[in-house]
């Protein structure tokens, strides 16, 4: 009898209401959930070294890579010749790769969607390119990420019911094609990140489905049903934080999350603020990614336990306090608001480097606190106090 | 009887021909010489965190700050309120501050020199500003650096003999004024970096004189004599690497270095390539600073033991070797030329961050090797082999 091992395992270790604390085991390490995944679009989490991501301050167990960006530059051949994305970038922990669906969607007028896939013009050189479920799966196999996302189509936040249905149904058909091509590629050994001799894992990649359907709860339910019918190693909610009202996001999550399979990880794509993360955990979400800590950091905005701090503000010119007095990251241990403001005002790279570090430390530490509070049964209290403190202006 | 302690001590531990290996003791740590000082113009060595400067890879014992830049931004008041430059930037090792003379000189047409000092327009906001020996000493006392430089005037590399003499004589008079004002400020307790209870040091700042005189050997000799007559804690050669032929630089160093006091540190300002450093050590120089490793790193150029490597080049697209196979820095241990090229081509901040780290590691490691070779008596062999290897193209 042949034992069938999965590519990942997921165990819930504790719950508090709908909130779950779990262990997601991948071929490249165990990830405690709920987890925040820093975004490494083009093979680098912008402005931070991998050593820092691995450091005690951050200890990021999984980061994102983007199929769209890496496919255009450096291209699949370079990644293949390097032996996969992990080896190309020098990161041996887990990777999740987005399918390119969202990036191509966000090109707006530059793209054209057909049943077969999406034609679009490259943002790099304007050349005509084409992505499909099959191509996305091929690229993600070459990248060798631990978690592959299906190639989906995202409807805008204000899509009509008819447009949203068309888009959701296309995503469902693309999910089937993604599933089939993914299975072929795994059998063919196309996965460049494959790890043999894993005790209870098969050493291959995992594939996650994505729930679409814009703001329509019935479409969201149907999308989830179709994804579960196909069967994936995890399920994501896509197409949120794309211009809809925040209340719509909560409605969709409140509708979908309770219906999602309990024994697989639930991933809310592209969300969000620290408050969004905590509120989503309360609704049963396990995984997150967002560019806010890195992008806002480069723009001079810090997230702190008492709200956001804009380092540009003149009021910090002589302020020798750290960004966040309750933060123990290396930036807060060493540098003052006055110095960070000076760096930002003089256009020094170090401003972005330090704010990126602090912001990622804050997001990852917040998730650490979330997990501890679920383990100890104090999540409701943590949630209440966290949201209250965040509302206090840092400025 | 009152024991008179100096602000710094300098001991030669070994020599090899004219090359010297010494120990420069400051109130903020002991510096092994010959030493390379990374340039931290505006209170940050561009693109690198202080933790990395302190790490084993680099272990920079002293960095530079620039009076001109810090005086304009964030301004003396902010630095004073922070308790000095060390506390403002979060660096507890030694600092050397340039006087502003060279920066003001490099503004070219924007400046006007008089006996009193230099009027110029700020590069930040175009406002009219004025620097003099007295003001420079006041700013450097507020910065609280371990080593203060006199306010000098720098003649261009192609200055006429008459212009070069005028400039050299002005620098000599300004050296006198710098000395007098510096002594006043030390007595007044204006030094924000003062450290009491130093075993064999007085806890105050050291002041270095600067030899000028353009390409004229007689003027250089006279300038040195006048500096030694005034008496400083160390002596610098300024006004080189400002557009003159390389052969002129060696002529000046060959003329001046043998005449410089043997028991004080000798500092060659703003020089140079790794080859220049090794060749200057061979002529008796102890201290260096240069923006090459940081500036060129940001522009995609790496210094390696086999010459320079431009990461932009297409030939590295699939090259999985490190920048420098003989380098043990964290960048070379982890990342390939292919990845560094990709980062540079996609305009990622990490390109500059990693190349800056490697280049500084290479410069500092080169100086470490220089010191070891002087200690062991192998400096001539090291020098010959180093120069030969550097001539081998890295590309």
Walk me through the structure.
2 copies of one chain form a homodimer. Chain A has 15 helices and 16 strands. Chain A has helices at 50-54, 67-72, 76-82, 85-89, 101-106, 133-143, 161-188, 217-230, 246-256, 274-281, 292-298, 330-334, 337-345, 349-376, 379-391, and strands at residues 9-16, 19-26, 29-33, 35-37, 62-66, 94-98, 111-113, 118-121, 128-131, 147-149, 206-211, 234-237, 266-268, 287-289, 301-304, 307-310. Chain A starts with 8 loop residues before the first strand and ends with a helix. The first copy, chain A, has 395 residues and is of the alpha/beta class. In chain A, helix 8 (217-230) packs across helix 9 and helix 10 (274-281) packs parallel to helix 14 (349-376). The interface between A and B is large, with 41 and 41 residues.
Sequence-ordered SSE layout with sheet pairings:
Two copies of one chain form a homodimer.
Chain A: E1 9-16, E2 19-26, E3 29-33, E4 35-37, H1 50-54, E5 62-66, H2 67-72, H3 76-82, H4 85-89, E6 94-98, H5 101-106, E7 111-113, E8 118-121, E9 128-131, H6 133-143, E10 147-149, H7 161-188, E11 206-211, H8 217-230, E12 234-237, H9 246-256, E13 266-268, H10 274-281, E14 287-289, H11 292-298, E15 301-304, E16 307-310, H12 330-334, H13 337-345, H14 349-376, H15 379-391
Helix pairs in contact in A: 6-7, 7-8, 8-9, 10-14, 11-14, 13-14, 14-15
**What is the helical fraction of chain A, as a range of percent?**
40-55%
Describe the global form of chain A. globular
Span from first to last CA of chain A? 64 Å
* Alpha-carbon Rg of chain A, integer: 21 Å
Strand percent estimate of chain A: 15-25%
Task: Report the oligomer.
Answer: homodimer
Low-confidence stretches of chain A: none
Structural class of chain A, by secondary structure, is: alpha/beta
Mean pLDDT of chain A: 96
Largest interface: A-B, 41 and 41 residues
Profile the largest sheet of chain A: 8 strands, parallel
Which strand order do you get reading across the main beta sheet of chain A?
Answer: 4-14-13-12-11-10-6-5
How many β strands of chain A by DSSP?
16
Q: Number of helical runs of chain A?
A: 15
